Amino acid sequence: MLNRIKNRISSLIKPVAAFIASKNIDPNIVTLTGLVLALITPISALLYGIPGAIVMIVLSSILDFLDGEIARVSGRVSARGAFLDSLCDRVSDLSYLSTFIILGLSPVAVYIAAGASLLISYARARAESLGVRVSGVGLMERGERILTIILILLLGLFSQSAMEIALFVFIALSIYTAIERTVFVVRSLGR
């Protein structure tokens, strides 16, 4: 879903990426800085509650979006950078989701949400290693998952129960997406 507007967003942040690239800042440093902010998210939730968590997720996500653009603008796109970015994305996803435990949601529900989220990413990575392009398949791609996590947190500002219900919706949609990707890849490989 968000992939459709990604090109528009990219054109808006290209000048920012170009400015950062002109300062000779390595895109991998931007990736790692985003990871550090993601890892701070649960601590920020513990100290500052939901607003603190939202701020860390938003900042981390902005850096995650910028790092690839900086690499493209500066001509520093590399397999090493792509691997590092992907690995940091998975760790960031787990950190964002673990924030819900800090905020009092069921650890079992968070565990299931994390597992479903990782399955979606794994399905894409494994499929693409086999030559099947999966980008755009499924409702809950990474951008949508992050946006949903932020929306769940915003609901938590008003009601713990609403946050719990929204987490279960996140789980259901993530499991559906993992299944949808699996079916798509199996059919593609069967051709």
Number of strands: 0
Say what the CATH topology is. Four Helix Bundle (Hemerythrin (Met), subunit A)
CATH architecture grouping: Up-down Bundle
Helices and strands: which structural class?
A: mainly alpha
Q: Pick out the low-confidence regions.
A: none
N- to C-terminal separation? 26 Å
Helix content: over 70%
Overall domain count: 1
**The level-1 CATH class:** Mainly Alpha
Oligomer: single chain
Q: Describe the main β-sheet briefly.
A: none
Task: Label the overall shape.
Answer: globular
Number of helices: 6
Mean pLDDT: 93
In words, what does this structure look like?
With 191 residues, this protein is mainly alpha-helical. The chain has a single domain (3-190), classed as Four Helix Bundle (Hemerythrin (Met), subunit A), CATH 1.20.120.1760. Helices cover 84% and strands 0% of the residues. It has helices at residues 3-22, 27-74, 79-102, 107-129, 142-156, 160-190. α3 (79-102) packs antiparallel against α4 (107-129). The two termini are 26 Å apart. 35% of the residues are buried.
